[in-house]
Structure prediction request, 230 residues.
Amino acid sequence: DSGVTQTPKHLITATGQRVTLRCSPRSGDLSVYWYQQSLDQGLQFLIQYYNGEERAKGNILERFSAQQFPDLHSELNLSSLELGDSALYFCASSLVGAGLTGELFFGEGSRLTVL
Amino acid sequence: AQSVTQPDIHITVSEGASLELRCNYSYGATPYLFWYVQSPGQGLQLLLKYFSGDTLVQGIKGFEAEFKRSQSSFNLRKPSVHWSDAAEYFCAVGPLTGTASKLTFGTGTRLQVTL
Prediction:
């Protein structure tokens, strides 16, 4: 158990809909990262927050947005969903930037299926 | 831009045999390199990391990796594979910064272990 909690574990929805994925980081971790894992794209970095502020951005679509709240949990919002958004979405956390500690702690992921 | 190449998509080894998983990276400065493992239905777990110093690093579960700057490689090795090592292995490269990090992962190598 990494200490990172993601909900929901599975989600099935239709094209055009909007969903919210939630992540609770390990106790004390200030950084939260979102990754998308799909069969054709592999593990893609989406975005990172540190203590409520966006710190790094990757290949995140404009239809997607994220935020980190004062209690440090984070939400990833996916809107106008397309079939290609079907993937496993991972949240990870670390105390500070991953470069300092060298370790990201990953949740078990939220599997999104868009029909 | 940083990138990671894992040339082997799938490797099968017999239990007790040695293992080497290849990883080549492209990075503009001193790389910070990682190997993560993903067991079925689980998130990623850090196996080992290289920041500086000794180019042969030891990790958990009996794994080791060797950093070779001249070859831009960071191959993962294990002298004797156990059936429980069957999983997907990801090499990653990232910068060393204070609060912002953007790890780039390879596409992964799936390891199958035959008994």
About this structure: DSSP finds no helices and twelve strands in chain B. The CA atoms of residues 39 and 87 of chain B lie 5 Å apart. The mean pLDDT of chain B is 91. The interface with chain A takes residues 32, 34, 36, 41-46, 49, 51, 90, 94-108 of chain B (CB under 8 Å).
